[in-house]
Amino acid sequence: MNTKKLAAEQAVEEITDGMTVGLGTGSTAYYAIEKLGERVKEGLQIRAVATSKRSEEQARELGIPIVPFAEVKRIDITVDGADEVDDNLELIKGGGGALLREKIVAARSDRMIVIVGENKMVSTLGQFPLPVEIVPFAHEWTLEALESLDLNPGLRMDGDQPYVTDNGNYIADCRAEAIPDPAALHAKLNDIPGVVENGLFVSMAHTVVVGREDGSVQTLRR
Ligand code: 5RP
Questions:
Q1: Which of 168, 177, 190 is nearest to 127 (CA)?
Q2: CATH code for the domain in which residue 81 is found
Q3: Closest ligand 1 atom, CA of 97?
């Protein structure tokens, strides 16, 4: 069962004529953009902004109108994936490296709909390594600061070079084991000079659409 596709297609039903839509990034968001492209071909009138170069490219190929950020005051709905969702609908995102743009777009959105397969649901965040976007300058010091929070950071690599985000930054994947208080860790991380943003999305998801192995779809609301 393709649980990602199930969730993605259900979430796209929420999008109606006249909306400005935020397009997420990742393999689940890919299905949502694909479905949205079909609906646009059938006549749905929307405009969109994208959270990554690859999502923007996919949207343009499908004929989804992408507008400049300067022309958008509010986004009606953003549809995006997640790496983990806890019992309070808090998220870890950034496995695909787009967390900064995803957070900027989610923060401008009246509703953030998160689409996941049921394997992403956890009671407490932290099994999935928490991505933290850091600037390349003196990144060794930033990694040390993350280390001092007992986060066991590892610089994400792309072959033998550091992985570089769409914003020209690096990613430190942190292993916290359990994150019982995402808001507290979020504040500590963003207080470190050199940290641009982290993958904890606290109080941002309004709705989580979960695709299940039995073919059903569950909608959780904040
Ligand atoms: C990218 C993300 C993705 O939404 C997250 O990694 C989930 O990806 P996928 O849908 O491929 O499992 O945050 O930065």
A1: 177
A2: 3.40.50.1360
A3: 14
